[in-house]
Amino acid sequence: MRAKRVSFGVLFASLLMLSCVATPMSAGQPVNLTASDGTLLKATYFAAAKLGPGVLLLHQCNQQRKSWDVLAARLAEAGINVLTVDYRGFGESGGAPFDKLTPQEQNKIVTDTWPGDIDVAFQYLVSQPGVTRDVVGAGGASCGVNNSIRLARRHPEVKSLVLLSGGTDREGRLFLESSKNLPVFTSAAEDDAFGRLTEMMQWLFSVSSNPASRFEHYAKGGHGVEMFAVHPELLSRITEWWGATLMKRPVSPPKANGSPLEPRVLSTLELIDQPGGAGKAGKTLAEARVSDPKASLFPEFIVNLLGYEHLQRADTKGAVEILKLNVTAYPQSPNVYDSLSDAYLADGQKDLALENAKKALELLAKDTIDPDQRRNAIRDSAEQKLKQLGQTRP
């Protein structure tokens, strides 16, 4: 689908902001911050009763900072100081409303402007007298996942990450893999409206080599902080986990509901991301299917995202090869054809773009697996390409 061509930072940014998940247990103190260009950034500070670590919480791109209030209050009660902040263009912060920007403008804000804004919030947090400035955690939901990882890459004071229902790019994954002293807590639900983000969070958990890393996998719960309303125990698990990783408190054994990806799957994903790797993975898949016609070596959702990562880096040839591999592996999925159509269109191969968009629509008519929201998004994306290419729906 075309929406997947934007960066991970704005993967879910086109939606309208939703209401908060619950009323906070205790209110934090409003804070006015000033970005380097003078833009107002509105934040809330939840102070612990005594000296302790700090946590910066970065909201998902269909909500705003108040969506974190319940967790922030819980953390403050547990001795962890918390700052939440509205990105510019969201909530009470200044800047042009984010949902009114073009995808290109959104990408520029996310890539070039938000890091500086987030650093302003980070510096405020660590400057507070109650915060142990060299022991900090960061948490993000949806687009906040990549923002949190990028923050940790810039600031070694960040000692642990909580990541909910979101993705990162190759540089972020390599950072998590190489940061052996940085534990991560990941979580997502199977009914997430934005796709199989349980696979993404399982992947980020799997690349982390820290023994304290955790993966909470739910069948239901929605997207990002929506999970708190369905699974209030998640609030306790995150609070307990941050107490262990930031305050060295003992933590009870985790519930065994999230396992890592199999080593073969991890190595295959790494291979696919390399130049020429999709072709090699295709040969391995063909060999595996000689004995097992239904053999699957990698998740469709993740490989689809890898293809779009290459599109974002202007590697259209690599994107075509990766998304062709996904078609080979999942020939009954309407989405893989729509995605391949995007890649062909970006590569200037209009005839093949048209052919694959039509195939996506053909399969959609028989699709009984994807939920309505996803089917509608695929249909809109494919029909938009038909219109762009001067065709009408078959």
List keywords for this structure.
about 400 residues, alpha/beta, Rossmann fold, Serine Threonine Protein Phosphatase 5, Tetratricopeptide repeat, 2 domains, eight-stranded mixed sheet, 8 strands, about 45% helix, globular
How much of the sequence lies in strands comes to 5-15%
Strand order of the largest sheet: 1-2-4-3-5-6-7-8
CATH class descriptor name of the largest domain: Alpha Beta
> How many separate structural domains?
2
Please tally the helical runs, counting DSSP H or I stretches of 4 or more residues.
14
Report on this model:
This protein is an alpha/beta fold. The chain folds into two domains: 2-247, 3-Layer(aba) Sandwich (Rossmann fold), CATH 3.40.50.1820; 263-388, Tetratricopeptide repeat domain (Serine Threonine Protein Phosphatase 5, Tetratricopeptide repeat), CATH 1.25.40.10. The chain is 46% helix and 14% strand. It has helices at residues 69-77, 103-127, 143-154, 170-178, 197-207, 227-230, 233-247, 263-272, 277-291, 300-312, 316-329, 334-346, 350-364, 372-388; strands at 29-34, 40-46, 52-58, 81-85, 131-141, 158-164, 184-189, 214-218. An eight-stranded mixed beta sheet has the order 1-2-4-3-5-6-7-8, sandwiched between helices. The longest helix is centred in the N-terminal third of the chain and has 25 residues, at 103-127.
